[in-house]
Amino acid sequence: MKKISTLLFLGLISLNLSAQKLTSNKKALIASVEQHKDNLIKISDSIWALAETAFEESKSAEILAKYAEENGMNVTRGVANIPTAFTATYGSGKPVISILGEFDALPGLSQNTVPTKDPRIEGAPGHGCGHNMFGAASLGAAIAIKEQIEAGKIKGTVKFLGTPAEEKYFAKVWMVEAGLWDDVDVNVSWHPGANIEADVQSGLSLIDFIVEFYGQAAHASADPWNGRSASDALELYTTGINYYREHIRPTSRIHYHIQDGGQVVNVVPDYSRIWVRVRDPKRKVMLPTYEQVKKMAEGAAIMANVDYKISLVSGIYETLVNRSGGEIMQKNLELLGPITYTDEEIAYGKSIQEATGKPQVGMDSNINPLRETEELPGGGSTDVGDVSWNVPNINLSVTVAPKDTPWHSWAVVACGGMSIGHKGMVYAAKAMGMTMLDLFENPKLVDKVKEEYKTRKGDEKYEAMIDGPPPIQGQ
Ligand SMILES: [Zn+2]
Questions:
Q1: Distance in Å, CA 166 to ligand 1 centroid
Q2: Quick one: which of 82, 101, 413, 462 has the fewest CB in 10 Å?
């Protein structure tokens, strides 16, 4: 009994201490996010249900833009010549602190909010990367900052950037080229995940390109000697790529997706098409590999006696980490403490883990310590990388799904549409808002973050890996 009461007492002290560390501005910011909470959840759920994919997110973008407008922000739609890209700003002068909001879904991942695989609409898209929460949380943070500027508590400009098509085409690269971060001092971003941490890990640089082979059609049996097969070229090309794998760096990856391999068996195909992707944690290592994989297309075309064409889709940089920014975020995570879950939510999480063959331990919402930055991280890639080479970026990961959940899967879609996802989304809005508040209040912190950015970037000149306008249907 004594032990329990001591623990209770200590618990009260620690609660009290963290409450004391919250400045009145931070308390006001948290209150503001709480005030918008129900609307943010509605926004997240609407975008979740729409599940619009790359460059087709017109309704999702409009939901966010409209809420920003209703809350007094100045909205510009269709920036960077992308109909679903927009900015929402408030305030004037320095510092300019920006925040990213994604909202695109992934094909084929439709799912109900149940902890076993159960598509809402068979074959339809779903938010398997949590971007429905991404945009909503970031807008929540931006509006909370706007309210602080409006109340005269802080000075400067807050800029929300609605960034579409992260999953397929990396629209931020065109947005960077359009100069949308040119006036920004520091950018803040987050990603839904299965843990809470100030993210100081990079990702992989990558480049996407399409190879098309053009041959001559003929009857596959009656006069094949009149044919030149585009699918032969395709097979020779992928064979070359697969032999080449032995000679690339262990950190590099080559993926391909055959998009057209001919239509019927009795025609020598005169056309084939393949989407190729090369990745490495370092862009400088990725580029020579990319050149070699491109060269092989010519070899395959010569062998099959066909013509070929290579078109760049887009490429993205690895993320430039900012540990000074990570430290600011870390302090705010520690102030907020872990997310707590109901018994029903824990049971839901365990059911997801059971269905995906993972240990049934529920959600991990402890605040991870700031980790060492890995020199050669594994994992995926993001166009936040390109933003991070143009302006310092502070990134956050917040739990929206149980521990070890397979990402880009139905399980993420399920959690993103119910309370586990909602809690993570609201938490992210608070953590990012508090971090932005620190930057507005302390010019020295902005300087420190910028200084680290300059040092890490060094002499490297940013060159966007795009060639022409974004591949938007109907443009
Ligand atoms: Zn994502």
A1: 7
A2: 462
Cα of 20 from ligand 1 centre, angstroms: 35
Considering the four listed CATH numbers 3.40.50.720, 1.10.443.10, 3.40.630.10, 3.20.20.370, the one that applies to the domain covering 20-202+318-457 is 3.40.630.10
Q: What is the distance in A from the centroid of ligand 1 to the CA of 129? A: 5
pLDDT in tens, 21-35: 899 999 999 999 999
CA dist., res. 429 & res. 442, Å (int): 20
Tell me the residue type at 280: D
- Ligand 1 centroid from CA 340, angstroms: 24
Instruction: Say how many C-beta atoms besides its own lie within 10 A of residue 195's C-beta.
Output: 17
| Residue 158: DSSP 8-state | E
Does the structure show a pLDDT above 50 at 280? yes
CA of 27 to the centre of ligand 1 (A): 30
Give per-residue pLDDT as tens, 146-192. 999 999 999 999 999 999 999 999 999 999 999 999 999 999 999 99
Q: What is the CATH architecture assignment of 205-316?
A: 2-Layer Sandwich (3.30)
SS3 breakdown of the chain: % helix, strand, coil, rounded to 5?
Answer: 45, 20, 40
Does position 288 have pLDDT exceeding 90, yes or no?
yes
